[in-house]
Amino acid sequence: MDQTNKTGVKSRETFLETERLQFSTWSEEDRPLASALWGDPEVTKWISSKGFMSEDEIEARLAQEMERQREMKVQYWPLFDKETGVFVGCCGLRPYETEEKIYEFGVHLTRDHWGKGYALEAGKAVIRYAFEQLDVQALFAGHHPENGVSKRLLQKLGFTYKKDEFYEPAGKMHPSYIFVESDMK
Fold first, then answer.
1. Under a CB-based contact definition with an 8 Å cutoff, are residues 27 and 65 in contact?
2. Superfamily assignment of 3-183 in CATH?
3. Which intervals hold domain N-acetyltransferase (predicted)?
4. How many CB atoms are located within 10 Å of the residue 4 CB?
5. What is the structure's pLDDT at 111?
6. Dihedral, 48, 148, 142, 111 alpha carbons, nearest 10
């Protein structure tokens, strides 16, 4: 159910909040938001070997996120600024090794929200949610080898480097990290 926040901006139903952010779930109406995020080649150059995503690929990604939420109660949840209602990006989880209760952590922000601490804020909330609400055993994460910002983010969040492994969508070896509950600060 949509609501109006204290500034009069229409906001979305949320299930998780931080000081500045609200977490929602993707819906069919979010195609423009998905296109704004995954249609930006400055964002997708870090996650796609082509350096961009077509409209069909964006549509498939959105459908995949919605299906994952229905089936597994996780996705890379869309993020919104609490005061303005502006879309910031997404942060969340997807299955990695489900039988061992290990999920992959990820965050993608729109370019105009880079460098403002949103990724760290959202990441801390998702990590807490994963261990406190979903009873995960560990989180996995990786990043494009040339993305130093993502590397620093994962280190700030407390992830520990394990090894480089091939990441098919980007077509490169990616540094890979793990986070266990004892890493929570």
1. no
2. Gcn5-related N-acetyltransferase (GNAT) (3.40.630.30)
3. 21-178
4. 10
5. 95
6. -50
Q: How many CB atoms lie within 10 A of CB 109?
A: 20
Q: What is the pLDDT of residue 8?
A: 38
pTM for the full predicted model: 0.90
pLDDT for 172 equals 81
CA distances from 44 to 20, 40, 60, 158, 174 (A): 25, 6, 15, 25, 15
CA dihedral 170, 96, 73, 150 (to 10 degrees): -50
Could you say which DSSP state residue 15 is in? Answer: S
Give first-to-last CA distance, the chain, whole Å: 34
Residue among 170, 128, 137 at smallest CA distance from 44 = 170
**For the chain, which residues make up each domain, given as ranges?**
3-183
| Predicted pLDDT at 39 | 95
The backbone torsions φ and ψ at residue 167, rounded to the nearest 5 degrees and listed phi first, read -115, 105
Beta-carbon neighbour count of residue 182 at 10 Å?
6
> Which regions of the chain are under pLDDT 70?
1-11, 185
> Mutual orientation of helices 55-72 and 31-38 as an angle, nearest 10°?
120
How buried is residue 135: exposed, middle or buried, by Cβ count under 10 Å (0-12/13-18/19+)? exposed
